[in-house]
Amino acid sequence: PGSEGRVEEVWGWKAYDDLLLDFVRRLKGFQADGVVPAGTFCLPHVSSDEVLLIIDPDAAARDRIPALEQKAAELDLFIRGYLAERADLSGRFRSFVGASRVHADPRRRPERLVYSGVRDARDRVTRQTIQREIRGAAVLQEAINRRDFTAVFQPVVDLATGDMLGMEALSRGPKGSDLESGEALFSLAERTELLGPLERVCRELTLEAAAADYTGRKLFMNLSPAAASDPEFLGPRFRDTLASFGRSPESIVLEITERTYVVYESLFREVLSRFREQNFGIAVDDVGTGYSSLASLADIQPDYLKFDH
Question: Whole-angstrom Cα distance, residue 122 to residue 26?
Fold first, then answer.
C-alpha cells in the first residue's frame, strides 16, 4: 500500500500502523475464500509499507505457475475493494501488487533468493506504474484540451432550519472512462502534475453550469493546495471570471478540509486571509474526520462548518 497524501503526517503514526495491521488481518482472512492461497505468509513491514506474500505451490500446481500472476490481479482487486470501504482514505492511499518467481537452488542461500525475488517484484511495480502514469497523463491532457468534464452539484443544507443554503460544486471526468470518478480524476492529476490546469478548466465549467440555473444560493467550491498556489486563481482573473457569470465574491464559499489545512498550514493561513478580505466565505469540510483539533478550527475562523450526511 502506498501513501500519497502524507497519511502518517495527517493522522499520526499510530493510526497509520493500525491501518496496515488491519490490512494484514483482512488479507489473512481472505485465505478461507481462496483469494490468498492457504499457507501464505503475510509479513508486515510497517516502516516500508510493504506486505510480503510467499506462496509455495504444491507439486500438482507447479506447471501452472502463471496462475500466480492471476492471483496478483485478484489481490489487487481485493486491495482496491478494501480501500473503497475506507472512505476516509479516498485519494490518499493506493495499492501496488508485484509478483515474481523464485526457484529453489540448493547452491544459493534461501535469503538471497527471496531478496532477489522481492527486488524483481518491486521493479515490476515500478515499470508498470511509470507506464500507466505516462498513459494516464496523455489521456488526461487530451481531456483538458477538450474540456471534457462535467460539473455536478449537491445541496448544502442548514442543519438548524433544514433549508438549502447553497450548492457544492463537484467535477466528473469523461463519461464512461476510468477518470469519470472525481476521486480517480484528481488523484491522477495530482500525480502527473496536471492538477493546476485541470482545476482551471473545472472552475470555468462549474461557473458556466451554475449560471445556467442561478438561484441566488451560495456556491461552495473546493480550495486545494494547487489552487492556493495558482497565480491565476489568486489574482484578478478569477474575480473577473466570476463577474462575467454574474457572480460576486459574497456568493462564493471556498472550502478546505481540516487535514489539508494541517499539512499546508502556512500556505492556507495567508491565502484564506486574502480571500476573506475580498468577502469570500470560508468553510471547513468533513469536520470531525481524520486528524484534527479545535485549535485548527480556531485558526481558520470559518463561516461554515460542513458535516457529511
Answer: 22
pLDDT tens across 157-213, in order?
999 999 999 999 999 999 988 888 888 888 889 888 899 999 999 999 999 999 876
**Alpha helices by DSSP H, the chain:** 7-11, 13-29, 67-85, 110-146, 182-191, 195-212, 231-234, 236-244, 258-263, 265-277, 294-300
List the one residue out of 256, 259, 251 whose CA is nearest residue 271: 256
Query: What is the spatial distance between Cα 96 and Cα 122, in angstroms, rounded to a whole number?
Result: 9
| DSSP-based three-state secondary structure for 190 | helix
Cβ neighbours for 98, distance < 8 A, ≥ 6 positions apart: 72, 120, 121, 122, 123, 124, 125, 128
- Provide the pairing of β-strand 164-172 with 150-157: antiparallel
Place of cell 490481479: 73
Report the 3 state secondary structure along 195-228: HHHHHHHHHHHHHHHHHHCCCCCEEEEECCCCHH
Sheet hosting strand 304-305, strand order edge to edge: 150-157, 164-172, 218-222, 252-257, 281-285, 304-305
- Please identify which residue in the block is written with the cell numbers 432550519: 161
Mark residue 193 as left, alpha or beta (left: phi above 0; alpha: psi -120 to 50; beta: remaining). Answer: left
Q: What is the DSSP letter of 173?
A: -
φ, ψ for residue 2 (rounded to 5)?
Answer: -110, 135
Render pLDDT for 233-275 as a digit per residue (tens, 0 to 9): 988 999 999 999 989 999 999 999 887 888 788 899 999 999 9
Helix (H, G, I), strand (E, B) or coil at 35: coil
Cα–Cα distance, 12 to 27 (Å, whole number):
23
Is-contact 1 93, C-beta < 8 A? yes
